[in-house]
Amino acid sequence: MPNEAMSPTVYDMAVIGGGPGGYTAALYAARAGLTVAVLEKTAPGGQMAATGVIDNYPGFDEGVEGFALAQRMQAGAERFGAKTIWAGAAAVDLAASPRRITLDVPAGEAGGEVLARTVVLATGASPRRLGLPEEQALTGRGVSYCAVCDGMFYRGKTVVVVGGGNSAADDAIYLSRICKKVFLVHRRGSLRAAPAQEKALAAGGVEILWNRRVAEILHGQTVTGVRLARTDAPEAAGEQLACDGVFVAVGRVPDTALFAGQLALDEQGYLIADETTRTALPGVYAVGDVRQKPLRQIVTATADGAAAAYFAGEYLRQG
Ligand code: NAP
Predict the structure, then answer these.
(1) Is 151 helix (H, G, I), strand (E, B) or coil?
(2) Nearest to 39 by CA among 68, 62, 63, 19
(3) Which of 56, 187, 252 to mutate to test the pocket of ligand 1 (most atoms within 8 A of CB)?
(4) Which of 166, 186, 201, 211 to mutate to test the pocket of ligand 1 (most atoms within 8 A of CB)?
(5) How many A from CA of 197 to the centre of ligand 1?
(6) What is the mean pLDDT of residues 116-142?
(7) Residues of the chain with CATH 3.50.50.60
(8) What is the pTM of this model?
(9) CATH topology for 10-126+252-318?
(10) Would you say the CB of residue 168 lies under 6 angstroms from ligand 1?
């Protein structure tokens, strides 16, 4: 007979991803008495941690720093016994019983597995790239996907923000307070961002370059400029614009590659689950930005986390 003390721990719930959805699932589940492990590869909070002041999360009359809120969400879940394991998931077997998550550990370190009766998928989304050949090599050398993280390196300099959604507008407005000059390059003639953003961009002195795309990022060791092409007149000659940095804010892509083949994804790669967060696999839940949904906000991610914990508890009680 196997020695009881040697048996691996089987958690009631494993949460993959320590953003607002993941830590809310952990909080609700741990508070309900379930054993919970949260797997997080870098820092708590996900995209929220890279946001400056958050004005639209209720309960903070002067807003709250994204990273501070992330730490509080982690502490709130750990207060009830949820455990954070600082590792990503390298592989998952969501149909196994118990479900198995292989940890992604640095080369040379002993690997490991987390076993759990239920799994909450809260891996969120990553920045979409422009897809230019030079983009990856210049990341951290003038190309950034996080204005709040990297904006300070461009104090008094000229930068280009790419995109036309709320993220691009927020980034351009944020950078206009730090940089000498901010250009917003958008591929169409109108913004996807909320109408109020256009006024804020104008107030910040942001110059919008409509109907243009970045065709090439010019560089030596670091970024020196961009070559722009017109999207409304593709035959027109390209323009060059000198700049010190390029902030890419063209949306996000869900981090679901790990689950492909085990769960259905929609045409954009999001996990298919309704407001109950239940996926097609009983005991497996999709929460936050990784789930197909109409509105991706911190409050909608935390709401998902609560739902996942509720339905996971119900699933476990049914045995
Ligand atoms: P988004 O709303 O999907 O906007 C992405 C923008 O990037 C669009 O303008 C799109 O152009 C452009 N784009 C996409 N691929 C491109 C490419 N390859 N090259 C050039 N441009 C490209 O993404 P988001 O701004 O990250 O926002 C995501 C969600 O979070 C949205 O629901 C947004 O409202 C929300 N959000 C809210 C706030 C806030 O409330 N303050 C802040 C940030 C984000 P097209 O317009 O031509 O499609």
Answers:
(1) helix
(2) 19
(3) 187
(4) 166
(5) 13
(6) 96
(7) 10-126+252-318, 129-248
(8) 0.80
(9) FAD/NAD(P)-binding domain (3.50.50)
(10) yes
